[in-house]
Specification:
- With 321 residues, the chain is α/β, with parallel strands linked by helices.
- It contains six helices and 17 strands.
- The protein folds into two domains: 14-135, Elongation Factor Tu (Ef-tu), domain 3 (Beta Barrel); 147-251, Rossmann fold.
- The strands form three sheets. It has a seven-stranded antiparallel beta sheet with strand order 4-3-7-1-2-6-5.
- A hairpin with a 2-residue loop joins strand 1 and strand 2.
- Helix 5 packs parallel to helix 6.
- 41% of the residues are buried.
- FE2/S2 (inorganic) cluster is lined by residues 279-282, 284-289, 305, 307.
Length: 321
């Protein structure tokens, strides 16, 4: 009944100059960046882009691109090291992707925490950014899935929005759980009187309600929705909805995903996690994003690359420490 969401890994990626359409403040420290990109390949929920705010085509003299025999090879200009933007791109999950003819609208949501995101915060309509993507493997929902429970924590919420849209199109019953530290850090639109203070799903978040998906919101400090961690609410939801057809899909801080995986395992439910391992190249070259992975049926473990083998893994196969 369900359509496989995933394509061959790393097919069809490219480097693109994207035009900023909007950079909308959502809540404290969070923005939605809406980008227009020509000829951007098809993507799947869970895939990501590597973004840089430096334009792809450097100013004349910015990079040395040709050199005489015996001369030094191409160098980064000293300006590069003094620039406010960092050297390396940063990864961001695709939060939405729509296509109109040759032009794609790609949306990401980001929290301002460091060097790159501070240069993203000041982007205005008409600016250009460089995108590499779509990268990685997305969520591969098993055939026979009867219900999906989404669990997004903090900056792990964006891929849940893209996934929610696809699940709704595939008519798979879905419940969304979103967890943040406090209400000022919820980058979503609260509607219809807001979430319940009990772990009862309601049409209370516009971004999910527009797909007919009910949501439970949790805040660590109890300032909105259910007080406490997202896994407390997940435990209640899985007590009511369990069985081999139920799949939990999660993204967020590592400890949240580890706790989510343990909760799903306790209920005998499959759990897919989109890992946000710090990474550099995003393309399987630098080996900076390794995790320990236990191949199904094996007693031994191997390394896997989060950027190309993931970022989505079945948590059954992840060795967390
Ligand atoms: C596959 C993937 C998808 C992601 N999707 C999103 C997204 O949709 N929205 C979003 O806001 N962020 C997302 N992130 C995290 C995002 O890449 C980082 O927030 C970003 O690198 C910050 O760049 P910066 O230069 O502003 O911060 P930096 O100056 O690089 O870092 C600031 C601080 O944050 C810490 N930090 C940076 N990245 C991470 C990380 N991945 N995990 C834990 N700590 C980190 C650093 O150690 C440092 O202490 C994703 C990461 C991955 C791997
Ligand atoms: S980020 Fe370079 S190999 Fe994964």
């Amino acid at each position: 009944m369900f359509i496989a969401m995933i394509t061959v890994r790393n097919s069809n990626r490219g480097m693109f100059t994207a035009r900023v359409e909007q950079n909308i403040p959502l809540c404290e420290e969070h923005y939605r960046l809406v980008l227009k990109v020509k000829e951007f390949p098809p993507s799947n929920p869970g895939q990501f882009v590597e973004l840089h705010t430096r334009p792809d085509v450097p100013e004349p003299g910015y990079l040395i691109t040709e050199w005489a025999p015996g001369a030094r090879p191409p160098q980064l200009d000293a300006e590069e090291f003094r620039a406010p933007a960092p050297l390396l791109r940063r990864p961001y999950s695709i939060a939405a992707h729509t296509v109109d003819g040759a032009v794609s609208t790609v949306e990401i949501m980001y929290r301002v925490i460091g060097k790159m995101t501070r240069t993203m915060e000041v982007l205005r309509a008409g600016d250009s950014v460089s995108l590499l993507g779509p990268l990685g493997c997305g969520f591969n929902i098993p055939s026979g899935t009867s219900r999906v429970v989404l669990a997004g924590g903090g900056v792990g919420i964006p891929p849940m929005l893209y996934l929610a849209e696809r699940l709704a199109k595939a008519n798979i019953p879905t419940i969304a759980l979103v967890g943040v530290q406090r209400k000022e850090l919820l980058p979503l639109q609260v509607i219809d009187g807001g979430p319940s203070t009990l772990p009862v799903p309601r049409h209370c978040i516009e971004e999910f309600a527009r797909h007919g998906i009910e949501t439970i919101v949790t805040t660590d400090d109890g300032s909105l929705g259910v007080a406490g961690r997202i896994t407390g609410a997940l435990d209640v939801v899985l007590s009511e909805h369990t069985g081999p057809g139920v799949v939990v899909c999660c993204c967020g801080p590592t400890r949240m995903m580890q706790a989510t995986a343990a909760c799903a395992q306790a209920h005998g439910v499959t759990c897919l996690a989109s890992l946000e391992q710090p990474m550099a190249c995003g393309m399987g070259t630098c080996q900076s994003c390794i995790i320990k992975f236990k191949p199904p049926g094996s007693t031994d473990w191997v390394y896997r690359l989060t950027c190309t083998d993931g970022p989505v893994f079945n948590t059954r196969d992840i060795i967390w420490n």
